[in-house]
Specification:
This protein is an alpha+beta fold. It folds into four domains: 77 residues, no CATH class; 106 residues, ATP-grasp fold, B domain (D-amino Acid Aminotransferase, Chain A, domain 1), CATH 3.30.470.20; 75 residues, Dna Ligase, domain 1 (2-Layer Sandwich); 45 residues, no CATH class. β1 and β2 form a beta hairpin. α2 packs across α10.
């Protein structure tokens, strides 16, 4: 992966992965790449002899072949679920709740903080919570009746709303689609703490959480009363961190084919229902031990592809950017 490594070398820590991949693809495909923000990669232009295309980091989409309506709908987890269920695509369901009083007069009843507590009790007192418009696994965690109020207060500092969903177990996959083609699939595994024979789980988790906060992500949940936090893992021992499996939050992803064609077909139907040409569809398979039980977790209209660099697959990175440049008339 020497060619791609050339673009990674010397870049600042804030330079987005996709800016590096775009520069790499431009050189390979004979296009011009212009950084417009002093070398940060946060704003750049790609140009052919006749056309120009602009890209920005953060909330900006790197996949302009996805139209704005489809991308915006996919960003809202409740809207996504409603659209998928209307198209007979099974989801984890759930309900959304607002965290602030403002605009209360403009919304329907049943979605306030007090309603979240009632809904949680209806789920048996435990739920998986995450911001309605969140990404990268930020504040995605299991909550119970004792922790919900504190969770809502903390999330309210950064977001306006959350979604509560049933807690399920199963194998998690991401299926990456270009139009109807599965370009790759990956199995997701939880983050883990690596023991050194000296530090306790509590100390290792504190270091892990500090790294998450430095990247603008919420810390992994910690129950101070959990006696296992004071255990000292052996040198090299792995202690999984339950909850989110996002790569950005320390999770592990491994390129792996979908466990069945039915899983790939469900991912295609999800992307098609939302009108997305590029999509990273996250799914649970084998839910609660049932081999054929598969449900969509969420659909990403602007998915990260860092896994491909880590897996030494610049060919797939180039294929994705070729699709983008061709769709926008640059090739």
């Amino acid at each position: 992966m020497q060619k791609l490594a050339e673009y990674r070398s010397g870049k600042t820590s804030i330079c987005p992965d996709q800016a590096i991949y775009a520069a790499f693809a431009c050189r390979e495909l004979g296009l011009r790449f212009d950084d417009l923000d002093g070398g940060s990669g946060l704003l750049f232009r790609v140009a052919s002899a006749t056309r120009r295309l602009y890209f920005g980091a953060g909330r900006c989409s790197y996949f302009p072949q996805n139209n704005a309506t489809a991308s915006t709908l996919a960003n809202d987890k409740h809207f996504t679920n409603q659209i998928l269920e209307a198209n007979d695509v099974a989801t984890l369901g759930g309900e959304y709740f607002f965290l602030h009083e403002r605009h209360r007069a403009r919304r329907s009843t049943g979605h306030e903080r007090e309603d979240a507590h009632r809904y949680l009790r209806g789920l048996g007192g435990t739920a998986f919570a995450k911001p309605l418009l969140g990404s990268r696994g930020d504040f995605a965690q299991v909550v119970n009746e004792a922790s919900l109020a504190l969770y809502l207060d903390e999330v309210a500092r950064y977001y306006d709303s959350i979604i509560l969903q049933p807690v399920v177990s199963g194998s998690e996959y991401r299926v990456f689609l270009l139009d109807d083609d599965v370009l790759y699939s990956a199995r997701k595994y939880p983050p883990f703490l690596l023991g050194d024979g000296r530090q306790s789980v509590r100390e290792l988790l504190a270091v892990h959480n500090a790294a998450l906060r430095s990247r603008g992500l919420s810390a992994a949940a910690m129950d101070d009363a959990d006696a296992t936090l004071d255990q000292v893992p052996d040198n090299g021992e792995r202690r999984p961190i339950s909850g989110r499996m996002n790569l950005s939050a320390g999770g592990v992803m491994v390129l792996e084919a979908p466990p069945s064609e039915a899983v790939a077909a469900l991912a295609r139907r999800a992307a098609r229902a939302l009108g997305l040409r590029v999509a990273g569809v996250d799914l649970f398979t084998g839910i609660d031990g049932e081999a054929d039980a598969t449900r969509v977790i969420e659909v990403n209209a602007n998915p990260s592809i860092r896994l491909l660099e880590d897996s030494d697959r610049p060919d797939l990175i180039l294929q994705i950017w070729r699709h983008t440049f061709s769709a926008m008339g640059l090739l």
